[in-house]
């Protein structure tokens, strides 16, 4: 069999791996959007496929989890001719539907902007619509989803069996274990997906894999360890007290709508229910956050034991008396000028678009405001500038002086760090594991450091594949 790395190869995003069996059966593991791909000018180019292979020749898709850098190209795959099933867990299907429809709506707004809101009948310019699927494509894609339970060994054929194993990281996220029989010999191959961390709010701990012949492992935190040593509740209680009680002022938290926002709301609910924290208004300013929170509520039994016990004791995981979901844009703009102490949770987490930009822009010059960054912010984003400590930030046509307090914490990071990654691989015996492939990480810093650490532990066959590179297994 042959494994080709078509995404997340020497970069973080765009996870996509094509496995071709001797029988000519083709399996695509993840089909993510490449967030680091250079944007192609949106005019004067014909439509181009986003895939370097023929989608109609793929027989099966396996999806580790819902995040757009793992699922975001599925509608393009279907649009370009894929006719098979998409296997994943039930929560992954539900969250993928939300994220893909959200992406389709964004694509529609972009296309409308390109056309100036008008459809021309003659001399209509050709545009590059690469990746710009619409709601109809998402609907067709969702019809191909088939869900499997964790630990359910699903035999696709006499030659192929698939098992999903809990990975933490996000509701429904899985490691994927493949058992493949060719020429009377069975080989095992596993994909880590995104590795979660232990004791994360709401989520189960990532489970180890059984011993395998080949392992594809993410390396996002391949050169980093988490800095936060206190619990999420303790860290949040401290920043809220200093910002909203002692000052009193406003706390703005940029957070992705799926995953981080639910962890935050759950933590704030714990503070309200168990620590008698002051009743400070909390605004969850994201329609997608509301919809995804409802998905989390549907799958309470797949959350960790602490969350299930909290739900039994208090009946609600995310809803508390001073929580307000903000759906319409007019109200979103109004809360930026709310005069009383408050907490605003809004997307995007990197401050790269979304409603949070308005809140940041209005409050950047407010010395009574604290902006708490709780996740990674890529270079080139406003979030990155804030974390870096820039004193002047350009937003739109304005050059703004930063007078708000900027704080950071990695306590809500959903990725396992270097120690977690090493522990994950160490469940494999070095003399049994034929090869480790590193993906989904910054190159060379994170990937090369992780490889060096593994080699010191006796794992000699560690590869860092380039995009398009193939390996015979």
Automatic annotation (TrEMBL):
GO molecular function, one term: hydrolase activity
Matching InterPro entries: Beta_Casp, MBL, Metallo-B-lactamas, RibonucZ/Hydroxyglut_hydro, RMMBL
Domain of life: Bacteria
Domain Metallo-beta-lactamase: 13-250
CDD domains according to UniProt: TTHA0252-CPSF-like_MBL-fold
Domain Beta-Casp: residue ranges: 261-386
Alphabetical UniProt keywords: Hydrolase
Keyword set includes Metal-binding: no
Protein name: Metallo-beta-lactamase family protein
Organism: Catalinimonas alkaloidigena
